[in-house]
Amino acid sequence: MHLPRHAIRNRARRAVALVAVASGLGLLPGVVSPSLAQAAPILRAERQDPEIGVQFHGMWADYTDAQRHEVLDRYEAIGVRAVRLDVSWAMLQPLGPEYDPWGVSFVDNVIDMINSHGMTALVTLWLTPPWANGDQGTLALPSNPEDYARVAQWAAHRYAGKVLGWEVWNEPNSTNYMVGADPVEYTRLLQAAYPAFHAGDPNTLVVFGGVEYNEDAWLTKAYDAGAHGYFDVMSTHCYQSPSNESPLTPDDGSRYKFMHLPAVRALMVQRGDGDKSIWTGMGYSTHVDPPETPVYARGVDEVTQAIYLNEAVMQIRQNWPWVGKFAWYTDRDSDAESTSHNKHFGLLRADLSPKPAYTAMANLIAPDPA
Q1: What backbone torsions phi and psi does residue 10 show, to the nearest 5 degrees?
Q2: Which residue in 69, 87, 109, 290 has the most C-beta neighbors within 10 A?
Q3: Cβ neighbours of residue 43 under 8 Å, at least 6 residues apart?
Q4: What is the C-alpha separation between 105 and 158, in angstroms, rounded?
Q5: What's the pLDDT score for residue 369?
Q6: Which ranges of 208-301 does DSSP label H, i.e. alpha helix?
Q7: What is the mean pLDDT of the chain?
Q8: Is 359 helix (H, G, I), strand (E, B) or coil?
Q9: How many CA atoms lie within 13 Å of 183's alpha carbon, on the beta-carbon side?
């Protein structure tokens, strides 16, 4: 794996920022935590775009219905109106083309929960059932993309008016999430999915599967394979590497920087998609690094997580009007994850108590006082 260079940080400026946020959030001795209406100055926002949302793992088995409602309550309370929801195709059609009643009712229930909290979902439809790819595993694409297209049309029709749009797979440029990570094979899936989703719901949005990092080189290959014309919105997941760097670390030309997102935008303009929006997102895990932690698994403290959330959103608001939505990964910490790094991306802790970044998001969403 390519290891990006560290950027030189201005330690004095960072120390001042940490103290400012810690004081405003009541994290320093003798300081009272403010209400949501009393934002720390560093966390104030001047505009209300992009729309800010969060990844909601409401389909995961480690949630009870009561916990799903409680998590959604927390985000409804701060004004979140859109969440990103991952849905397994393998759960909808586990044994063949027939739809499984339990799986369908589960998806129905979670989407209805989201709607009942005044929110809508961008649904990531992925994970292939064994019958559709010769039992190669859920991360392998279907042998026939038309099998995915049929479930895409069914889902778009069933949830028309209830969801924001449909994301075709998750991070298809990563072998951790799509076997082979082949842009040509992914483009075949996209070409089958796009007309199918729109046949099911002409008003829905079809989102290019959010690529891991800002990998414009992989996206170039997808364009070369014919991706143009088969998505309504581009999507990237702008994680940093090293994973404890500020999102404002200067672009070094690699995919591993948040500040490399304009390269994706430039590619879209070059290929005739300058009128399309980019929906992006990122996250930072809050944990202490054990010795020899690799660059992609480094954590930050909770106050720094809040600062980085604010930095990313304000960069978009001030400089990137072509970004339409920003989703934070993720809603809450989860013991279901396998590593300490993956467990601690939440804006809420596992007990659903808020981290400073939750308050940061609240203040970014809240309108400025008149």
Answers
A1: -85, 100
A2: 87
A3: 21, 24, 306, 310, 359, 360, 363, 364
A4: 12
A5: 58
A6: 216-224, 261-270
A7: 88
A8: helix
A9: 18
Distance between CA atoms of 362 and 168, rounded to whole angstroms? 29
CA of residue 57 relative to chain centroid, distance: 11
Q: Please give the single-letter amino acid code of residue 45.
A: A
Distance CA 57, CA 27 (A): 28
Return the residue matching tokens 């993309």: 145
pLDDT tens across 129-147, in order? 999 999 999 999 999 999 9
Dump the DSSP string for 300-325: B-HHHHHHHHHHHHHHHHHH-TTEEE
State which amino acid sits at residue 265: R
Residue 61 has, within 13 A of its CA and on its CB side, a CA count of 5
3-state secondary structure of 111: helix
Which of helix, strand or coil describes residue 41? helix
Whole-angstrom Cα distance, residue 205 to residue 165? Answer: 4
Q: How far is CA 310 from each of CA 133, 192, 306, 356, rounded to the nearest angstrom?
A: 42, 38, 6, 11
Tokens describing residue 95: 């044994």
For 185-195, the pLDDT digits (tens) are 999 999 999 99
Helices (H), 78-165: 89-92, 101-116, 145-158
pLDDT value of position 41: 33
Rounded Cα gap, residues 144 and 248, in angstroms: 42
Beta strands in 146-260 (DSSP E): 163-168, 206-208, 211-212, 234-237
DSSP 233: B
Structure tokens at 219: 């996206």
Third-level CATH fold of 55-365: TIM Barrel (3.20.20)
Other C-beta atoms lying within 10 Å of the C-beta of residue 195:
14
Residues composing the chain: 370
Say if residue 290 is preceded by a cis peptide, omega within 30 of 0.
Answer: no
Q: Answer yes or no: are the C-beta atoms of 82 and 44 closer than 8 Å.
A: no
What residue segments make up the domains of the chain, in order of their start?
55-365
